[in-house]
Amino acid sequence: MSSSNVSSIVRKLIMSRPFFKECLVEGVVNYSALARLLARELESMEVRASHSAVKVALTRIRRDLLKSEESVRSKLKHILSSSVLQVQTDLNVVTVRKHSILLKLLDVAKVMETSRFFQLLQGVNTFTVIISRENLNELLKHISVNDVVEVLEGQAAVILISPREIVETPGVVAFVTSTLYETNINITQIVSCYSDTIILVDSSKVSEAFRALESLIKSMRAS
After folding, report:
1. Domain range spanning residue 14?
2. Which pLDDT score, from 0 to 100, does residue 26 have?
3. Residue 157: which of 210, 218, 219 has the closest Cα?
């Protein structure tokens, strides 16, 4: 197989694994070890490529990645360093069957007007309402108990308020969610509302989530 074909296949493998891609960009990968791993995978795909050919392909891929990601990373750094955080506590997540909201849309809108925090998300068969705890009972008055799929209590939102450029910049949400993943924080819900990114976590984890994202923002400002 030609070197260009090998490089093309290796590139597809790397791009399908964000962790490998990130390690290449950061320059912290062992090229020989990764080349051996990928060579074995190519062999299982019945693609014949030597260890050295895969290693050369990795070198070329890293060079191309650095060029293409330089401007994206610059934008990502600008967005995160210009972002601020807010926290909303004492939230509940209510999932209900779609028709129950549609039939009571005006009543639900009135609850929305008076709620400290309210988000309405439409799925295929259900609506999910993120609502402040003190307004939960008012919402449930308008919904049949048989239409309530789940009520998740004890939630909190960390809200990332960013510049408008976040709308057209890839990778920001991935960067934020991976930061929380590395801190072992489960995201219950995530909502994008124009330039706001609303991340719902269990209340017991909100302080950790805030500190993790605050550290991320500070590191972007300092670099």
Report:
1. 3-69
2. 86
3. 210
